[in-house]
Amino acid sequence: MKPIGPIPPAFATPGPLTIAGRTAQDLVATHGTPLFVYDRAAITERVARLRAALPPAVEIHYAIKANPFPPLLAHIAPLVGGLDVASAGELDMALAVKPAVHISFAGPGKRDTELEAAIRARATINLESDGEATRALAIADRLGVVPRLAVRVNPAFELKGSGMKMGGRPSPFGVDADRVPALVRRLIDAGADWRGFHIFAGSQALDTAAIIETQRATVALASELADAAGPQPPLVNLGGGFGIPYFAGDTPVDVEAIGAALGDALMPGRAYAIELGRWLVGEAGVYLTRVVDRKDSGGETFLVVDGGLNHQLAATGNFGTVVRRNYPVALARAVGAEPDETVSIVGPLCTPLDRLADRIAFPHADAGDVIAVFLAGAYGASASPARFLGHPDSAEILA
Ligand code: PLP
After folding, report:
1. Fold of 9-38+283-398
2. What global pTM score does this model have?
3. Which residues make up the CATH 2.40.37.10 domain(s) of the chain?
4. Which pLDDT tens digit goes with each residue over 264-301?
5. 240 lines ligand 1 (CB under 6 A)
6. Pairing between β-strand 370-374 and β-strand 329-331 as defined by DSSP bridges
7. Which of 16, 38, 84, 119 is deepest in the core (most CB within 10 A)?
8. How many CB atoms lie within 10 A of CB 393?
């Protein structure tokens, strides 16, 4: 038997699972399965908690990549100080919900068409290389527009303990720190509107002390680079990387401690941002899927459900995890019910990779029962191979 991760407190009340005041049973009766439900109020509370924890000089940006579901985006956009996009497609989504919002565009390999779209939209482009800078300047020149350009820095350090490290090594992301001052001077000499630095060192970190240490190092690096370049940066984007507890033994990050430490570390009079996806929306989402078949094989019981890695790849351990572990799951009609057997919950895809829960203790469930997979609000529907094997797409709702 293997452990499951902790059910988020908002959904852990024993009894029928309730999301945004509606039972899971009611939700699937209306919308069917498989279904992603995102709790609007939970997102509002999350942003408010972070806003209260952070110093006023730090803006919150939402990284759309975590969940671009249009109603969710329309809900969160007015709550945050900016939207971070990673493609022209995401840029369009951001412009559709809130044209006047501060938009920043990060990501390697921006095509000329994407640079042009961002320059026309007056978005800040976080430049990932000298070559990208050259192309952006040429496009802006052709358009007769002063481009908003920031430099993404590849720092010499990483965010320790993060699930995905994006610093401290040769990288497709950002310009190596030692080359940054010269690039900043070049942008300014070319007449660009230099918007500052973007320094993103990693994602899915649960170690509060490591996040604090990385933020201190990031503030110091931005200051050193600015001194070397000459002018002060209008904005320093400190990255983010706050994780959420997916697995047994994981504990949440202490955002109040992070905010307090950041208050001590910031340079007075400067403007900062942090850029988060997962922490803002991950816990607000639940994936609901129905048991199609219950079968025994070789002494093990399998609950075969109607959705799996095609919708919720991360829960099957196939989205950037090294060792497969179980996300929190529950029988939707009886959260907290005493387990009475060991089961594996598998999706309908014809591959052994499609396993939502591996040999867990679970209350008895039959065909027709609904299973809830928690922590489905980030990197779920949009980060899964929905077309693989031709199964139906999942529905999504903001409740
Ligand atoms: N910003 C950038 C540049 C990223 O690469 C990522 C994730 O990889 C994010 C923001 C969002 O990270 P998270 O969802 O962990 O907060």
Report:
1. Lyase, Ornithine Decarboxylase; Chain A, domain 1 (2.40.37)
2. 0.96
3. 9-38+283-398
4. 999 999 999 999 999 999 999 999 999 999 999 999 99
5. yes
6. antiparallel
7. 84
8. 12
